[in-house]
Specification:
Helix content: 25-40%
Number of domains: 2
CATH superfamily of the largest domain: P-loop containing nucleotide triphosphate hydrolases
Oligomer: single chain
CATH class of the largest domain: Alpha Beta
Number of strands: 10
Strand content: 15-25%
Bound molecules: adenosine-5'-triphosphate
CATH architecture of the largest domain: 3-Layer(aba) Sandwich
Order of helices and strands: EEEHEEEHHHEHEHEEHH
Shape: globular
Distance between the termini: 45 Å
Strand order of the largest sheet: 6-7-8-3-9-10
Length: 245
């Protein structure tokens, strides 16, 4: 289990202090208004910013571990694949910087590529793929690292609704199959409803509520959460006939 307790970081006058839990095999959606500190929480867990307090995986503290040592892999909206390299080379880079994979690594790469439906794209250049194919490749690269905590920061937000839904369902399937603890930053309440066992609502650098998506809906912790849900649910931007208001 990923356990975050009073994990604290200060930037200027802003303070971030988080409490959160994520079990193996479960997706936790991070919701909250823009600028509330969702990405900052991921950066603190990954070790990109230096925090104090407590963050552990299966009881072992990660705080003193370097970024490379932490049991974490991440995928952000900007996928950082190299355009001029093939997908195979991009994935191999996740395993070995020299691109020299042994037989077992090559087999593993192929197996993950097959599971994500990109096995027939391995010899194409990243520059020649569509957005959805690229995000699948980036997800494959993150999975190849075989880390039990997967941090996803709006990885599919630039995709069309069908591809986004497919990507999210794939994440849920992978979390269950590989017993990953997944933290998913999203601006869409519907994403949380579709795949998350648990939702952490963040406001001003704190998790103000962590519960099931259904409980968030029925028992919002405060007026801030209730207001966010009202807006997310009501689709304020459309008139009764579905046209833009
Ligand atoms: N590198 C940085 N330097 C200074 N301030 C930053 C930096 N990164 C983020 N912030 C500030 O920290 C706060 C939290 O930012 P963060 O990116 O974590 O929010 P978020 O909830 O992920 O936002 P969004 O939903 O818009 O992506 C914001 O006020 C932001 O302006």
């Amino acid at each position: 289990m990923l356990e975050v307790k009073a994990l604290t970081f200060s930037r200027g006058s802003q303070q971030f202090c988080y409490n959160l839990r994520a079990q193996r095999g479960e997706v936790v959606a991070l919701l909250g208004q823009s600028g509330c500190g969702k990405s900052t929480l991921l950066a603190m867990i990954a070790g990109f910013v230096k925090a104090t307090g407590h963050v552990s995986w299966n009881g072992q503290s990660m705080l003193e571990q370097s970024i490379a040592e932490r049991p974490v892999s991440s995928l952000f909206q900007s996928h950082n694949l190299f355009d001029h390299l093939s997908i195979r080379q991009n994935l191999a880079l996740g395993l070995d910087g020299s691109l020299k994979l042994n037989k077992a690594q090559q087999g593993h790469l192929h197996q993950v590529a097959q599971q994500l439906g990109i096995a027939d794209l391995l010899d194409r250049r990243a520059a020649d793929l569509s957005g959805g194919q690229i995000q699948r490749a980036a997800l494959a690269r993150a999975l190849l690292r075989q880390r039990p905590i997967l941090l996803l920061d709006e990885p599919f937000s630039a995709l069309d609704p069908v591809l986004r839904y497919d990507g999210l369902k794939l994440v849920q399937q992978l979390a269950r199959q590989h017993q990953l603890a997944v933290l998913l930053v999203t601006h869409q309440l519907s994403d949380a409803r579709a795949i998350a066992e648990s939702v952490a609502f963040i406001d001003q650098g704190q998790v103000v509520q962590q519960c099931s998506p259904a409980e968030l809906q029925t028992h919002p912790a405060n007026e801030q959460v209730a207001h966010y849900l009202r807006i997310a649910n009501e689709s304020l931007f459309t008139g009764e006939d579905g046209a833009l208001a």
